[in-house]
Every structure is written in C-alpha cells, then in structure tokens.
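User: Predict the structure for this protein chain, please.
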Amino acid sequence: MKIRMLVAMPEGATRNGAPWPGEGETADLPTAEAAHLVASGVAEEVADDGPAAPPEVRRGRRKVETESEG
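Assistant: Here is the predicted structure, written as structure tokens:
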C-alpha cells in the first residue's frame, strides 16, 4: 500500500534499517503496516493510479443574509 507521511518521525528513527520517509514523502509499505499508520493519523493512503492530487482545501461556511436579517 502506498502512503504519504503526514508527520516527521523522530530524528534517527528507522524502518528495517532505512530512515523513515520525511513529512510529505511517499513510501510503499505492507498493507497491515500502512493501514496502522493511516489509522493513527501519521500517514494517508495514496492512490496508485498516477500522481497524487494535492490535499483538498477546506473552506469555511459563509452565512447568507436574508432580507429579514438585513
């Protein structure tokens, strides 16, 4: 499963002897391990079908004035 790291791991942290990917970098991990990181909020799943889209921008709600409020 391909994931994108949402946080930086502590300095010196390794996975199987290799450094963890940095924040925003992707990695291909076994499904169980990747699912655990996603569920923990440490990473997000990346679709395997081409380049990843940028994260969706969250927009606030705007209150629409009505004539009675106006």
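The chain has a mean pLDDT of 83.
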